[in-house]
């Protein structure tokens, strides 16, 4: 598969690195040689110096034969133009990163398709949705809904209050129990568990369950003492903060702390009257106390600086804030943030890459997510008639090492699976993949 990526910036370079590991034929375009130099030396891909809005450059890159053209330059106008040109040169699919929320409205999607742009991605909106999901459940590190919530995956940090620690999984998560444990992160190790494994204190465990059993999951993991979130404080008034405030539930009160006075004026115009904007430094503990940090249930750090966000979340925890969320774009800091027990980590590069990645899979697949904490993917696969996964019960199918099935949705009803489950064509199957060749997984469903 031939992939052209235009823009060797944050998302483009991460996506190129991520895809090069999967042996795709990749060309990365950028007009600045210093952006291309390092990645071209360290990864299995080709680089091309030039503007992605140049017809000659696109022809030289081979847009005519591209299976996917991805434009992730800083300027959305460049991305829209480049995708339109690549489409008319022959690229099969195009994706453009944009910054204008108006473009994401459903009535405008068809307009861009007529221009030759198959998908638009707005990383800040994708990140905002993850943030709001995190705020809705203070006791969960990460939540992922399958098919509108027919099944739910919950990433939960286990403390000494957890009631299912130190017992073999076969004794606590059998066919009659309303949850499966699909992965465990323990220190620096990712574990795809079997029946003999146990849950231990400080594990980050990923549970697959049904929506109606979420209160039960809260009880057995010892999270009943976590208060529901009503008061939220956000540090940093950038685009991700704006998108988050725009979709925050009405029952939550929000305060945004921003250092730039001009930006504060803009935010005041964007937000409702009851959504407060404070001009100040979110690292100033006196300011935090004055603005009610002791009565705040969630603190969200969204400045462009990862260290600032991590330190601010640590400070918030000293005031008793239970739920902290930090934007960490520098991957070098993600493990550190996890070890410092920051809470939910937001990385727009990984979120955007997950969204784009599902376009590359041959099988009928949707809703792919990359789970940074365990360095793994989870996705919804839909098997076709006669595919290998539908021919036998799961226990009789040799699944690739590192792959596990968390559950499925059939006729809009979510269900957990066991070894005796027979998957049918048209089912929505939740597949968890860790360090596994994705082509082997796809072959089961095609």
Q: Explain this structure to me?
A:
The protein has 446 residues and is an alpha/beta fold. The protein has 4 domains: 2-121, Rossmann fold (3-Layer(aba) Sandwich); 132-221, Regulator of K+ conductance, C-terminal domain (Alpha-Beta Plaits, 2-Layer Sandwich); 230-321, 3-Layer(aba) Sandwich (Rossmann fold), CATH 3.40.50.720; 362-443, Alpha-Beta Plaits (2-Layer Sandwich), CATH 3.30.70.1450. The protein has 15 helices and 22 strands. The strands form 4 sheets. A 6-stranded parallel beta sheet has the order 3-2-1-4-5-6, sandwiched between helices. A 6-stranded parallel beta sheet has the order 14-13-12-15-16-17, with helices on both faces. Strands 7-8-11-9-10 form a 5-stranded antiparallel beta sheet. A hairpin with a 4-residue loop joins β18 (364-371) and β19. α1 (10-20) crosses α14 (348-357), α6 (123-136) crosses α9 (239-247) and α6 (123-136) crosses α14 (348-357). The radius of gyration is 23 Å and the shape is globular. The two termini are 17 Å apart.
Summarize this structure briefly.
With 446 residues, the chain is an alpha/beta fold.
Write down the CATH class of the largest domain: Alpha Beta
**What would the average pLDDT be, to the nearest integer?**
89
Question: What would you say the CATH architecture of the largest domain is?
Answer: 3-Layer(aba) Sandwich
- Report the strand count: 22
Give the tags.
Rossmann fold; Alpha-Beta Plaits; 446 residues; 4 domains; globular; 6-stranded parallel β-sheet; transport; alpha/beta; potassium
Topology:
Blueprint: E1 2-6, H1 10-20, E2 25-30, H2 33-42, E3 46-49, H3 55-61, E4 68-71, H4 76-89, E5 93-97, H5 106-115, E6 119-121, H6 123-136, E7 142-146, E8 151-157, H7 169-172, E9 179-186, E10 189-191, E11 204-209, H8 214-220, E12 231-235, H9 239-247, E13 253-258, H10 261-270, E14 276-279, H11 285-290, E15 298-301, H12 306-318, E16 323-327, H13 334-339, E17 344-346, H14 348-357, E18 364-371, E19 376-382, E20 403-410, E21 413-415, E22 428-433, H15 438-445
């Amino acid at each position: 598969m031939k992939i052209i990526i235009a823009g060797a910036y944050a998302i483009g370079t991460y996506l190129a690195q991520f895809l090069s590991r999967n042996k795709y034929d990749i060309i990365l375009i950028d007009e600045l040689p210093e952006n291309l130099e390092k990645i071209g030396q360290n990864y299995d891909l080709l680089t091309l110096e030039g503007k992605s809005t140049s017809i000659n450059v696109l022809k030289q890159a081979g847009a005519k034969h591209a299976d996917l053209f991805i434009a992730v330059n800083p300027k959305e106008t460049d991305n829209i133009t480049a995708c339109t040109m690549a489409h008319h040169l022959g690229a099969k699919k195009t994706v453009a990163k944009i910054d204008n929320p108006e473009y994401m409205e459903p009535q405008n999607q068809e307009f861009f398709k007529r221009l030759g742009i198959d998908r638009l991605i707005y990383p800040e909106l994708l990140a905002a949705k993850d943030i709001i999901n995190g705020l809705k459940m203070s006791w969960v590190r990460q939540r992922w809904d399958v098919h509108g919530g027919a099944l739910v995956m919950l990433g939960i940090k286990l403390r000494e209050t957890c009631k299912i620690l130190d017992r073999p999984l076969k004794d606590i998560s059998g066919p009659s129990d309303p949850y499966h444990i699909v992965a465990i992160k323990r220190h620096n190790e990712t574990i795809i568990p079997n029946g003999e494994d146990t849950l231990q204190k400080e594990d980050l465990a990923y549970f697959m369950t049904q929506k109606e059993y979420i209160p039960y999951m809260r009880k057995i993991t010892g999270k009943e003492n976590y208060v529901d979130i009503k008061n939220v404080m956000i540090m940093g008034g950038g685009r991700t903060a704006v998108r988050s405030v725009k979709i925050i539930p009405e029952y939550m009160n929000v305060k945004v702390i921003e250092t730039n006075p001009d930006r504060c004026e803009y935010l005041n115009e964007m937000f409702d009257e009851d959504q407060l904007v404070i001009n100040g430094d979110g690292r100033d503990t006196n300011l935090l106390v004055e603005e009610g940090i002791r009565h705040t249930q969630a603190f969200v750090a969204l400045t462009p600086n990862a260290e600032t966000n991590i330190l601010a979340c640590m400070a918030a925890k000293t005031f008793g804030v239970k739920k902290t969320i930090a934007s960490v774009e520098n991957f070098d800091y993600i493990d550190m943030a996890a070890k410092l027990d920051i809470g939910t980590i937001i990385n727009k590069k990984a979120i955007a890459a997950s969204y784009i990645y599902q376009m590359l899979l041959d099988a009928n697949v949707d809703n792919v997510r990359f789970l940074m904490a365990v360095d793994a993917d989870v996705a919804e696969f839909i098997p076709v008639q006669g595919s290998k996964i539908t021919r036998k019960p799961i226990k009789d199918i040799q699944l690739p090492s590192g792959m596990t099935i968390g559950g499925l949705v059939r006729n809009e009803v979510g269900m957990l699976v066991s070894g005796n489950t027979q998957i049918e064509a048209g089912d929505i199957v939740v597949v968890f993949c860790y360090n596994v060749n994705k082509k082997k997984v796809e072959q089961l469903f095609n």
